[in-house]
Structure formats: structure tokens, C-alpha cells
């Protein structure tokens, strides 16, 4: 895959998931339900950079994504 970064905006039930490609074009920018969130994340190649907005549940999701082999960084807003 040609993914540069996956940016995630966490909320209570609906997350915003944006996939940016290396040519700086947006592949996908969609809302996803919390229960379906891990399905597309499991499809990402190991080592993919994932940026998560820092909030109350960001550490939980970061640990979950790291266990999938993804490289997680926090966005400080």
C-alpha cells in the first residue's frame, strides 16, 4: 500500500478515519462506528503510521493498534 499516514479523530461512538497517501492525496475520509473500527485497521500493513488525537481513550486505542503492529503517534491539539 502507498499509505503515508492514517489520522483518527476519536469520539464516544463515531470515529473519523482519514487515510493520506504518499502523493498527499486523500484515499478515504469517513466516519466509522466504534464497533467496526478495528476491521479496516487490521488490513493496514505493519508499521503504518497512525496519528491519534490525544483524548481520554487515546491510550487505550494506541495500545490496541500497537498490538496490531502499527506505529502510533499522538496529535496534541
Task: Give the structure's gist in a few sentences.
By secondary structure, this protein is of the alpha/beta class.
Give the SSE map.
Layout lengths: L2 E7 L4 E8 L4 E8 L4 H5 L6 E5 L4 H10 L3 E5 L2
What does this structure look like?
- It is built from two helices and five strands.
- It has one domain: ATPase, nucleotide binding domain (Nucleotidyltransferase, domain 5).
- With 77 residues, it is α/β, with parallel strands linked by helices.
- It has a five-stranded mixed beta sheet with strand order 3-2-1-4-5, with helices on one face.
CATH architecture: 2-Layer Sandwich
> Helix content range of the residues, please?
10-25%
Overall number of domains: 1
Main sheet: strands, sense, barrel: 5 strands, mixed
CATH superfamily placement: ATPase, nucleotide binding domain
What's the gyration radius in Å?
Answer: 11 Å
> What is the count of β-strands?
5
What's the end-to-end separation, in Å? 28 Å
**Bulk shape:** globular
CATH class: Alpha Beta
Order of strands across the main sheet: 3-2-1-4-5
CATH topology: Nucleotidyltransferase, domain 5
SS field, number of helical segments: 2
Q: What keyword list fits this structure?
A:
77 residues; alpha/beta; Nucleotidyltransferase, domain 5; five-stranded mixed β-sheet; 2 helices; globular
Amino acid at each position: 500500500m502507498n499509505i503515508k499516514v492514517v489520522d483518527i479523530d476519536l469520539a464516544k461512538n463515531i470515529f473519523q478515519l482519514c487515510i493520506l497517501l504518499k502523493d498527499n492525496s486523500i484515499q478515504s475520509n469517513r466516519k466509522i462506528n466504534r464497533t467496526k473500527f478495528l476491521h479496516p485497521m487490521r488490513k493496514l500493513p505493519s508499521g503504518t503510521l497512525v496519528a491519534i488525537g490525544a483524548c481520554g481513550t487515546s491510550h487505550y486505542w494506541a495500545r490496541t493498534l500497537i498490538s496490531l503492529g502499527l506505529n502510533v503517534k499522538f496529535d496534541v491539539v
